[in-house]
UniProtKB/TrEMBL annotation, chain A:
Residues 31-196 form the Pyruvate/ketoisovalerate oxidoreductase catalytic domain. It comes from Stella humosa. Pfam families: POR, POR_N. One of its GO terms (molecular function) is oxidoreductase activity, acting on the aldehyde or oxo group of donors. SUPFAM superfamilies: Pyruvate-ferredoxin oxidoreductase, PFOR, domain III, Thiamin diphosphate-binding fold (THDP-binding), TK C-terminal domain-like. InterPro entries: 2-oxoacid/accept_OxRdtase_asu, Pyruvate:ferred/Flavod_OxRd, Pyrv/ketoisovalerate_OxRed_cat, Pyrv_Fd/Flavodoxin_OxRdtase_N, Pyrv_flavodox_OxRed_cen, THDP-binding, Transketo_C/PFOR_II. Residues 232-394 form the Pyruvate flavodoxin/ferredoxin oxidoreductase pyrimidine binding domain. This is 2-oxoglutarate ferredoxin oxidoreductase subunit alpha. Keywords: Oxidoreductase. The lineage of its organism: Bacteria, Pseudomonadati, Pseudomonadota, Alphaproteobacteria, Rhodospirillales.
UniProtKB/TrEMBL annotation, chain B:
Coiled coil: none annotated. One of its GO terms (molecular function) is oxidoreductase activity, acting on the aldehyde or oxo group of donors, iron-sulfur protein as acceptor. One of its GO terms (biological process) is cellular respiration. Keywords: Oxidoreductase. This is 2-oxoglutarate ferredoxin oxidoreductase subunit beta.
Length: 622, 351
């Protein structure tokens, strides 16, 4: 995926040539079947070699409520949502006023003109494109479901003419989509051309917003983070998945099932076991049971599920059992915003359960890293014998992102960690389940059933000595807790290192960010630089933090920490874990549930700078 | 301390089983439960059952929740891996363990507080999934570790040690197990080893979810005249529906009982369950009749014990999931990781 960062201005003036650089937003009704048509639209632009950023905005509902799909066409290859709308496809009467108001001045409004709207319903500063979609459908189809579904394809056809999208590309995509159901191909192509012909006849096509074939996509793939993470789990050797349905993580477990069917069948026999548990408690319980018994196991969940799993997570931490948890974060607290994105489970995961606990968190920035960390998590969980959280969010998990293709080194082997084998036990090696034999805090374990007389032990959540013998003696307890801390220090050396980037100019300003924020951050940095604001950046990729994180903060006068929650949870984690001066860390918090944009980051930082009276401008501009 | 190692001295003339193990090899640490606790009798029955079945102790995984009953796995099968999980959630941990390695024998030990209250959901779902296990509830109708509160299996109207009456309806775990589809359901009494040992043996050899509800009086808090789970009450009201022999490789391992109609049930592994009916109408292969019979006898104040139901054609969770015969925890990279070429194809499909 090319990440061209050169010479682009973030907020472009309206009008002028907007070839390969505009935003189309579709306003639909949930359940109307528009999703596949909208996806077809986005993919057709990618096939023309032009990158897109696609985001779903949908309600926690099955039918009838408003849903939006936003496609940012960006030849520069920006990865984040832009904000603003150049062309609104307003298919939902419920949200008409909001949708019309959302169009940038000089933009376009596309709507179903079967029942023409009065002039008062429009704006004078935007161009209206009315296509009688319902009338066209009613002429062509008698079945009501067909009328609905083909209406979506007809507007894709009209847009292809207005935006100069190659119809052959769309036809090819339709053929691929309905491969095996060939009789559906022709009717869809016919519908496409109904819309296209109408637009060509009625409007001066194309608009100044248009798509021109380019070579800016390269070998990038278009995939959602949940499917990518699930594929990572397959490559990571996961064999047991226990899960309970919850938005936005359900599609991860479902994707795992799909990938397993493709890759893990052996005749009629399966090299995996997937159980839809009765609740989140049972799902993490099964993962812990499987992990204890030497299988690689995971669950996928979201914030409310994390809340329910707390007791078991403490057990896994204290009894030292590998477990992988994919947490696809949504808006909290409580039921919160089930279909909106946030990064607000950080503290709940980092310190999950009662007592002194600390857990490993991985922080992927996009589906590609969701795949990589999705497989790495199992190595880390086995190596460290502890729960490992892969912290996705709805934006990464449920949206399709254009990202680097997945890669795999065939020489890589699963790291099963310190497992004492029958041969080692036979050789007389001393086995104490919680003995720190290597000084890294990580003991050896045995799988149940290994040896007739040696290596068995009792796993429990109550405290015990180094030979797993129950004991409530204070020194024995402290010895164990200190070893767990030593193990967490070891974890620092094993988790993915942060990514640090220096500004083009010397600066005392730093920005720390992580996860899905990265997409908007690339663009925000360029815009800020154009305004003379230079910042070094550090992208966190894991907790525990490596020493480089504290060093970065200490090297800068002020560090902005960009995160998608109300209370600055990552800031809290950084301050408490790295013993940092809280005054040096300024939170930039975006938590309305929508994906963070470069516009927001730039605006928030620019607004904060005068108050802070920081020096970067003086340093940057001699 | 609940971990007191037993001395390892073995008398050279102790009898051994076919694997060469003595009965001592199936024991665990010294029990720290109250003297006379019914749970210790159940531990002794498990030890005897495993010894007589010639099971290698390390091939058994014993899992429990929290509570007096859940402490007992420390006191038997010392060479086995044990897992003392969280309150009421042993079934999910056992399910996961079973998925990871289908080659071990899974013994889930729980109590009435553990399984009928906080863990009722996990009990129910592990049974309905057909997890291959012996799930044994050591049922005393009381919370022992927290000193005497009623559990959800305490009978309505029964009295606590301090004289308070229980006003809630009891949960009958055996009836529930029948309703939930358990393919082996039995009830026994900790004080009736002759009945309990063959039941444990048959349940271990059974494929699928085998459940034994074992009445096990609490000597400290629930063994007084007002309790319906006291030794005396259960002895007086016990009605055994059958006597059970388990035939392994056609060698009887329990004594023959008195006259009565004989029913033989062959399990998946070739074990023959030989049932001598004491109740002329009782057929342990009829789930509906078993449920009805339990309820009728409960209405008369009778505690029905014996093998209540068995399905010789049972299947387990691995059958439902069509998992490979090789334990999942021993599959290697070659079996699990599709490799770079397959990934290239995935990438191509996403463009």
């Amino acid at each position: 995926m090319p990440q061209s960062l050169a010479g682009s201005s973030l907020i472009q003036s309206p009008g002028g040539d907007r070839t390969n650089d505009f935003v189309v937003k579709f306003a639909n009704v949930n359940g109307s079947g528009s999703a596949s048509a909208n996806l077809l639209f986005a993919r057709s632009i990618i096939r023309m070699g032009v990158p897109v950023v696609a985001r779903n905005i949908f309600p926690s509902n099955i039918q009838g409520l408003p849903t939006w799909y936003e496609v940012r066409v960006t030849e520069q290859g920006w990865r984040g949502a832009r904000g603003g709308v150049d062309l609104m496809v307003a298919m939902n009467p419920q949200t008409w006023d909001k949708d019309v108001n959302g169009v940038d001045p000089g933009g376009y409004l596309f709507y179903d003109s079967t029942k023409p709207m009065p002039a008062s319903k429009f704006r004078p500063d935007i161009t209206v494109l009315g296509v009688p979609l319902t009338a066209i459908c009613n002429r062509a189809y008698t079945d009501s479901r067909q009328r609905q579904l083909f209406k979506n394809i007809i507007y894709v056809g009209a847009l292809s003419a207005l935006l100069d999208i190659d119809p052959a590309v769309i036809e090819a995509l339709i053929a691929e989509q309905f491969k095996g159901k060939d009789k559906l191909i022709r009717p869809n192509i016919d519908a496409l051309h109904m819309g296209r012909d109408y637009a060509l006849q009625e409007f001066p096509c194309p608009l100044p917003l248009k798509v021109r074939a380019a070579d800016a996509v390269g070998d990038a793939i278009f995939v959602d983070g949940n499917a990518a993470a699930a594929l990572g789990a397959v490559y990571g050797g996961a064999t047991v998945c226990a899960w309970y349905p919850i938005t936005p993580s359900s599609s991860l477990a479902e994707a795992f099932q799909r990938h397993c069917r493709r890759f893990r069948g052996e005749g009629e026999q399966n090299k995996y076991a997937i159980v839809q548990a009765e609740d989140e408690l049972a799902s993490i319980g099964m993962v812990i049971g499987a992990g204890w018994n030497g299988a690689r196991a995971f669950t996928s969940t979201s914030g409310p599920g994390i809340s329910l799993m707390q007791e078991f997570l403490g057990l896994a931490y204290f009894a030292e059992i590998p477990a992988v948890i994919f947490d696809v974060q949504r808006g909290g607290p409580s039921t919160g915003m089930p279909t909106r994105t946030q990064q607000s489970d950080l503290l709940a995961c980092a310190y999950a359960s009662h007592g002194d606990t600390k857990h490993v968190l991985l922080l992927p920035e996009d589906p590609n890293e969701a795949f990589e960390m999705g497989s790495l998590a199992f190595d880390l969980a086995d190596r460290l014998q502890t729960p490992v959280f892969v912290m996705l969010d709805l934006d990464i998990g449920m949206n399709e992102w254009l990202c680097r293709p997945f890669a795999w080194d065939d020489n890589r082997r699963m790291d099963r960690g310190k497992v004492m084998t029958r041969e080692m036990l036979e050789a007389g090696i001393d086995f104490g389940r919680y003995l720190d034999v290597d000084g890294d805090g990580i003991p050896y374990r045995t799988y149940p059933g290994t040896h007739p007389t040696r290596g068995s032990y009792f796993t429990r959540g109550t405290t015990r000595d180094r030979y797993a013998r129950y004991s409530e003696e204070g020194p024995v307890y402290i010895d164990n807790m200190e070893r767990l801390l030593a193990k967490f220090e070891t974890a620092k050396t094993l988790v993915p290192a942060p990514v640090e980037r220096a500004a083009a100019e010397p600066t005392g300003l730093g920005i720390v960010y992580f996860g899905s924020t990265a997409a908007a951050m690339d663009e925000a940095l360029v815009t800020m630089a154009e305004r003379g604001i230079h910042a070094d950046t550090l992208r966190l990729r894991a907790f525990p933090f490596s020493d480089a994180v504290a060093d970065f903060v200490r090297r800068h006068d002020t560090v902005f920490l960009v995160e998608q929650n109300r209370d600055g949870q990552m800031r809290t984690l950084l301050v408490s874990e790295c013993d940092l001066d809280p005054a040096r860390l300024v939170s930039i918090r975006h938590y309305d549930g929508t994906p963070i944009t470069a516009r927001f980051i730039v605006g928030a930082i620019a607004a904060a700078l005068p108050d802070l009276n920081v020096v970067p401008l003086r340093k940057a501009v001699p | 301390m609940t971990f007191i190692t037993k001395p390892k001295f073995h008398h050279p003339k102790l009898p051994t089983n076919r694997l060469g193990y003595t009965r001592r090899d199936y024991e665990g640490a010294v029990s720290t439960l109250c003297a006379g606790c019914g749970h210790d009798s159940i531990s002794a029955a498990i030890i005897q059952a495993c010894f007589e079945l010639d099971l290698a102790p390390h091939r058994i995984a014993k899992l429990s929740g929290i509570g007096c009953s859940s402490k007992t796995p420390t006191y038997f099968l010392g060479a086995s891996h044990g897992f003392n999980s969280v309150h009421g959630r042993m079934p999910s941990v056992l399910t996961g363990a079973n998925l990871a390695n289908r080659d071990l024998i899974y013994l889930g030990v729980s109590g009435d507080g553990d399984s009928a209250s906080i863990g009722l959901g996990q009990f129910a779902h592990s049974i309905r999934r057909g997890v291959d296990m012996l799930y044994i509830v050591e049922n005393n109708g009381v919370y022992g570790l927290t000193k005497g509160q009623f559990s959800a299996t305490a009978d309505k109207g029964s009295l606590s040690k301090r004289g308070a009456a229980n006003h809630d309806e009891p949960i009958d775990l055996a009836s529930m197990a029948l309703l939930l589809g358990a393919s082996f359901v039995a009830r026994s009494f900790s004080g009736d080893k002759e009945q309990l040992v063959p039941l444990i043996q048959a349940a271990i050899r059974h494929k699928g979810a085998a459940f034994i509800d074992c009445i096990s009086p609490c000597v400290a808090f629930n063994n007084h005249p007002g309790s319906t789970k006291s030794f005396d009450f259960v002895r007086e009201h016990n009605e055994a529906v059958n006597r059970l022999d388990v035939m392994v490789d056609h060698a009887p391992i329990a004594a023959q009982y008195g006259p009565g109609e004989l029913v033989e049930v062959t399990q998946h592994d070739g074990t023959v369950l030989r049932l001598r009916k004491l109740d002329a109408d009782y057929d342990p292969r009829d789930r509906g009749a078993a449920i009805s019979y339990l309820q009728q006898q409960a209405a008369k104040g009778e505690v029905v014990t014996g093998l209540l139901y068995v399905d010789p054609e049972s299947a387990d969770l691995h059958d439902a999931l069509s998992t490979v015969a090789t334990p999942l925890n021993s599959l290697d990279d070659a079996a699990l990781v599709p490799g770079a070429k397959a990934l290239d194809k995935v990438n191509a499909s996403l463009r």
